[in-house]
Design brief:
By secondary structure, this protein is mainly α. Helix content is about 35%, strand content about 0%.
């Protein structure tokens, strides 16, 4: 059945239904006492049994095609306009007459009876509250190198997401249709698309009735809304910074590998810290909360929000045992420690810190009594800050324990040598030192 005959069948069905309803109302009117005055119906409180699902009724139960109600803004356009009275009145003539039907009006209007367009619900109705897509894989659509895909179009973030006047990202059917209107690309967004094509991305009946969702994986509300509450942010302002070479993946690092809306997330505050901790002017740094936050700060600032307040977990033991945390993937030490680089990884982060700050273990006794044992166990750690000539420059000098040298050489060195002969071999060898005296005495 082509679309023309399908539409004719829908009209015939609705007309028949309307005649039956009109007959019922006529019979009921005969039973009313004379002089009774009709009053506008008031909506009854909804119950679990009365819950009405707009798309579930029209698509699943009545079998309507999406194009019956959703018409393009102009001929051939992929952008669809909100269904108007013209589409609804085809079947619901009586509901738009003198006796308004509250159930019909409540699908689009917040007040009954409606008096102005200001009382309209948002369109799409669930935008910003629930995901309008069944699912979406960025990994299948995005090429981080902005290369041309099989359809001949550029695959990067800014091709699908456009920046509006307020600096926010938005996308719609126009961007999707660039590829999906081409032959062979499913789901199709051509002028002859059917409900099956629309359902390749959308499942509005499942949005209205969550019990119909086959996939129960929750999508983070931040992803659905596309914004954090009480946060001021502008994409256009960030792209406008000169000298920072920012792109979408500078903040949205996981977007190119996200295969599901549930795995997609917005940037965290630690991502902001890679620039706002030190690189920007003082008015744009992390401790200036009002730069990004709309809500008024109350109480004591969180320890992790300011680079001048040491976090609670930075105890005395943490200073000598922080290697695992500092070397972990995604470590945010750089937010406070400005000498660290956010782009470095693992051991490089440690190097940039330990080359500029003496470890806590390097006490007054470290140089003379302790460091030899640690150097023997793990010389690689010493090499983080020290080079080979560090040892030779120091050990070429006569140690304090060797003074006075004549007394030490004459026999005072015996006890120290017996306790730790290895320390002697740091500078001496048996052949060129010990043998000069001890081999001669053994003859």
């Amino acid at each position: 059945m082509n679309r023309r005959w399908q539409s004719a069948a829908v009209v015939l069905f609705c007309t028949t239904l309307l005649v039956v309803c009109m007959g019922s109302r006529g019979a009921a009117a005969k039973q009313e006492p004379a002089g009774a005055k009709a009053s506008a119906p008031s909506p009854a409180p909804a119950t679990a049994q009365d819950t009405f699902h707009l798309h579930g009724k029209h698509v699943k139960e009545l079998g309507f095609d999406c194009s019956t109600c959703h018409l393009p803004v102009k001929e051939g356009s992929a952008k669809l306009q909100r269904p108007g009275h013209e589409q609804c009145i085809t079947c619901h003539q009586e509901a738009f007459g003198e006796s308004l039907n509250p159930k019909v009006c409540s699908q689009c209007h917040t007040e009954f009876p409606p008096t102005s367009a200001a009382q309209l619900l948002p369109f799409p109705k669930f935008k910003g509250k629930q995901p309008l897509l069944v699912d979406f894989s960025h990994a299948k659509h995005v090429d981080p190198h902005a290369r041309i895909n099989a359809s001949g179009m550029r695959s990067d973030c800014t091709f699908c997401h456009t920046i509006d006047a307020k600096g926010a990202f938005s996308t719609g059917h126009e961007q999707c249709a660039t590829c999906h209107s081409k032959a062979g690309i499913k789901p199709s967004m051509a002028t002859n698309s059917t409900t099956q094509d629309c359902q390749g991305c959308h499942k509005p009946e499942a949005i209205e009735d969550p019990t119909l969702r086959a996939d129960k994986t929750p999508v983070p509300q931040l992803v659905v809304a596309g914004k954090y509450p009480n946060i001021k942010f502008s994409h256009s302002a960030h792209f406008g910074y000169k000298g920072y070479d920012m792109n979408c993946t500078s903040c949205h690092r996981g977007v190119t590998t996200s295969a599901h809306l549930a795995t997609l997330d917005l940037p965290k505050m630690s991502d902001c810290g890679s620039c706002h901790a030190e690189k920007l002017a003082a008015t744009r740094r992390m401790d200036q909360c009002s730069t990004c936050h709309v809500n008024t700060e109350t109480g004591v600032a969180l320890a992790s929000y300011s680079r001048w307040i040491k976090p609670a977990f930075h105890t005395e033991s943490f200073r000598s045992q922080h290697s695992s945390e500092a070397g972990a993937s995604g470590a945010t030490c750089y937010m406070c420690h400005s000498n660290l680089s956010s782009s470095s990884a693992g051991k490089e982060r440690c190097v940039s810190c330990h080359q500029s700050m003496k470890p806590a273990s390097h006490t007054a006794r470290w140089r003379d009594d302790v460091h030899g044992k640690f150097a023997a166990i793990d010389r690689q750690t010493c090499a983080t800050c020290h080079t080979a000539d560090t040892c030779s420059r120091c050990h070429n000098e006569v140690p304090r324990s060797h003074e006075p040298l004549a007394f030490f050489k004459g026999g005072a060195h015996a006890r120290l040598a017996m306790l730790n002969e290895r320390s002697c071999l740091t500078c001496h060898t048996f052949e060129n030192t010990c043998a000069e005296c001890h081999a001669r005495n053994l003859r």
